[in-house]
Amino acid sequence: MNCKPQELAMILSPHVAHGHFVTTLRIACPSGERLSGSLFCGGSGPAWVVSGSIPFPHLGVLSLAVISDSSLRPIRDPGDDAVDETLLRLPSPGQEVTA
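^ that's the sequence the OP posted. Answer follows.
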């Protein structure tokens, strides 16, 4: 699973709402969940009930949807020990490059 409950995630679905952010609420029922005023989008496998302003063609903006886990990417704090890899390749501004 890519996501966890109550996590901010970006939709990476080529079909609908690509690039929009949602909050994962809970895992959707494996037999296919129907929510009032919602829509299932994307793939097979585990799915999440998500909330947010989710635009769908021909339907408008929905506040709830069921989206497959494979169509979501979590947005997480990398932690205190995270390293900016771009700084490993190039010197910081003002530093001299020694050969």
